[in-house]
Specification:
It contains 19 helices and 27 strands. It is of the alpha+beta class and 712 residues long. β25 (626-627) and β26 (630-631) form a beta hairpin. It is globular, with a radius of gyration of 26 Å. The chain binds dioxothiomolybdenum(VI) ion.
């Protein structure tokens, strides 16, 4: 079997499967496609945050236009996700600014835009709620209870309390959301920029009232997703499908940047409160955490975001007595949703700034405090999960501290305009709890004349899915990397491998593919592909995910094994401040991640660099200005993300500590790198003497913050 042979593809930087097509321009993104007779679609949206629709005035002649509202939905007017609470098109009520109300389509895009500007809607307005603390609608509440909190506090010498705030963040994939819906074979086919073909497939079945085989979803080459194309494509595909259904013609619906920023999901903002009992020597005795996330107007994936958030809320630290209470509530803003990290960046920001504050309060070295409390193999997490041998918290911490020369620099920078901060973090790979078992994902491998073809619904969104899967299959089969093809993510061709989310594509789907390849190799029994196919005609191996034995999870009590494995990371970040403006410039990042095994070191490094850069924006620059429930800075000129010039030098170290149930030992890498930089940067700003506890840490916010000596 591959793993015991000298591996030829795994661990090497083979060329990306789709790399040549991307650099030559041959790759087709959705906006590159046209179909005969195709119309362009537009979405007319609410201009208020809460109220009822009273009247719609079209204001233009209908000829040549396809116009659709909620009454044109053939099936159920919902975006089917966890709950069926979100209408695909508003009926009477609107619950947020930019809520879709009416759809227009026309052959001529200019005429369409002109018509759009003539539509007027009368509303009866209601008082919106924007403050999650004042919301009376809770989507989900989760409680994690470990040990005896009162006893933990009784054992403490000191109690450190704190409140931490995180803002919204826009995913800002290069390619905006877009789809084309084509009426075909009495059903509908949707081509689109998306992460999860089978999520869209289900949503369309429910919306159109069609059977499985009448709906087909095909992913087109996708220019980034970051979670922003996890659930939202179900909405936009629904809109295009309604217009295509009514007009009997293909309909293209591609957002421009402003519409994408105003209307689609963002990272949940939140307030996280910590109360920690600690002994004088720095041992954590009690941890009490309250997490409040703002879900926006509809549920989307908020309960799952909250779930990952609360499970990661302690940070990678052991403590016998823990209580975590989490809530995600409704407000009258566009729904928040999936974004790389999925709740964990929010809660670990709070955990790591709080850890720094504990060190400040006790007057002890912050590295020693972390060393003392960091998870070791055999420790249990807040849910009672016993950690395995692949627990590398101490290893990444020590490596990052020594590589960055953290201690010496901290001393040297004191009293200067330079600061240095650190954050230790972890990230569970795959769906939470029993999620992977419930998903029962499938993957297939097909024997070809020249090698093998991978059939999975996992999507390539820039992260390297096709390449990494092909490496795993090539080495397991013992064939060259180039002999492995990857089929398009087309629900008419590939089985449901689950969504491309949650850092599961390598560890979970890659593992199923490894098992497919093992079985194919056994079945071939040394025969060549050509001989086998001549003899038997064809060979397709399909496998379903089965979790490692002995994993246990109780969704009622939130006890058990939350994830098959965790990745471990530590970031050290150096910053420089402008003494006049308090503009903070990060100058150097030392990122150390333990990810089990790097299947493709360059791609893995790219994930760490990209996640780090995205988190630098989260920490310092990216401020969604919400005015009256509407994003007021929905343009790249005033929603600032880091450019090359804002991105510091990133020194990446990948450590490997194989996870026995991952393919070739691999765990996930996609999300973890976004967890650490924000707290590391804020801790660096704290080392400059300012008590910052919220992000983005803009100069305005830093100037408002008390100095550390005052707030101690
Ligand atoms: Mo996601 S945030 O695509 O798990």
């Amino acid at each position: 079997m591959g793993a015991t042979e000298k591996s030829r593809a795994v661990g090497r930087n083979v060329p990306r499967k789709e790399g040549l097509d991307k650099v030559t321009g041959a790759a087709k993104y959705v906006d590159d496609l046209t179909f005969p007779g195709m119309l362009h679609g537009r979405t007319i949206r609410s201009t208020i945050a809460a109220g009822e629709i009273e009247n719609i005035h079209l204001g233009f002649a209908r000829k040549g236009f396809t116009i659709a509202d909620c009454r044109d939905v053939p099936g159920r007017n919902v975006v089917a996700l966890i709950e069926l609470d979100q209408p695909c098109l508003a009926e009477r009520r609107v619950r947020h600014f930019a809520e879709p109300i009416l759809l227009l389509a026309h052959e001529d895009r200019e005429r369409l835009l002109e018509a759009e500007s003539l539509v007027a809607i009368d509303y009866r307005e209601e008082t919106p709620i924007y403050d999650p603390e004042k919301s009376d609608h809770c989507f989900k509440e989760i409680r994690i209870e470990k040990g005896d909190l009162a006893r933990g506090f009784a054992e403490a010498d000191v109690v450190v309390e704190g409140e931490y705030r995180v803002g919204l963040q826009e995913q800002l994939y290069i390619e905006p959301n877009g789809v084309i819906a084509v009426p075909e074979n009495g059903g509908i086919t949707v081509y689109g920029s998306l992460q999860c073909p089978y999520y869209v497939h289900r949503a369309l079945r429910v919306l159109l009232g069609l059977s499985d085989d009448k709906v087909r979803v095909v992913q087109t080459e996708t220019g980034g997703g970051f979670g922003g194309k996890e659930e939202y494509p179900s909405m936009i595909a629904g809109h295009a499908a309604i217009l295509a259904w009514k007009s009997r013609r293909p309909v293209k619906l591609v957002y421009d940047r402003v519409e994408d920023m105003v209307a689609t999901t963002k990272r949940h903002p939140g307030v996280i409160r910590h109360s920690t009992g600690v002994t004088r020597d720095g041992t954590l005795t009690a941890i009490k955490i309250d997490v409040l996330l703002d879900g926006g107007a509809y549920m989307t994936l908020s309960p799952v975001v909250l779930s990952r958030g609360v499970i990661h809320a302690t940070g990678p630290y052991r403590c016998d007595h823990v209580r975590i209470q989490g809530r995600v509530v409704a407000t009258n803003t566009p729904p928040n949703g999936a974004f790389r990290g999925f709740g964990a960046p929010q809660t670990q920001f709070a955990a790591e700034v709080h850890m720094e504050r504990i060190a400040e309060t006790l007057g002890i070295d912050s590295v020693r405090l972390r060393e003392k409390n960091a998870f070791r193999p055999g420790d249990t997490t807040s849910t009672g999960q016993k950690l395995g041998r692949d627990t590398s918290a101490l290893r990444v911490l020590r490596e990052a501290v020594s590589r960055s020369d953290f201690r010496a620099k901290r001393r040297a920078y004191r009293g200067t305009n330079r600061g240095i901060g650190l954050a230790l973090f972890f990230h569970g790979s795959g769906f939470t709890g029993g999620g992977e078992v419930k998903l029962a994902s499938k993957a297939s491998l097909e024997l070809t004349e020249t090698g093998a073809r991978i059939l999975v619904a996992s999507t390539e969104i820039g992260q390297g899915t096709r390449t990494m899967h092909a490496q795993i299959v090539a080495d397991t089969l013992g064939i060259p990397y180039d002999a492995v093809e990857v089929a398009a993510a087309d629900t008419a061709r590939v089985p449901d491998s689950g969504p491309t989310v949650a850092s599961r594509t390598c560890m979970v789907v890659g593992k199923i593919l490894e098992r497919c390849a093992q079985e194919m190799r056994r079945e071939l029994g040394g025969r060549s592909a050509q001989d086998y196919l001549a003899e038997r005609g064809s060979l397709v191996v399909t496998k379903e995910y089965s979790g490692p034995d002995g994993l246990y999870w109780d969704d009622e009590t939130y006890r058990g094994d939350a994830y098959g494995a965790f990745g471990w990371g530590c970031d050290v970040i150096e910053v420089e401040r402008d003494p006049e403006t308090w503009q903070i410039r990060p100058t150097r990042v030392t990122a150390v991640c333990e990810i089990g095994k790097a299947i493709h070191p360059v791609l893995a490094r790219g994930q760490i660099e990209g996640g780090t850069a995205q988190a630098v924006g989260y920490a310092l620059l990216e401020e969604v200005a919400m005015r009256d429930g509407r994003m007021a800075n929905a343009q790249l000129t005033n929603y600032l993300v880091p450019t090359t010039l804002d991105t510091p030098e990133i020194d990446v170290t990948i450590l490997e500590n194989p996870y026995e149930h991952g393919p070739f030992g691999a765990k996930g890498v996609g999300e973890m790198p976004i967890d650490g930089p924000a707290p590391a940067i804020v801790n660096a700003i704290r080392s400059l003497g300012v008590d910052v506890r919220s992000i983005p840490a803009t100069p305005e916010r830093i100037l408002e913050a008390p100095s550390l000596s005052a707030s101690r």
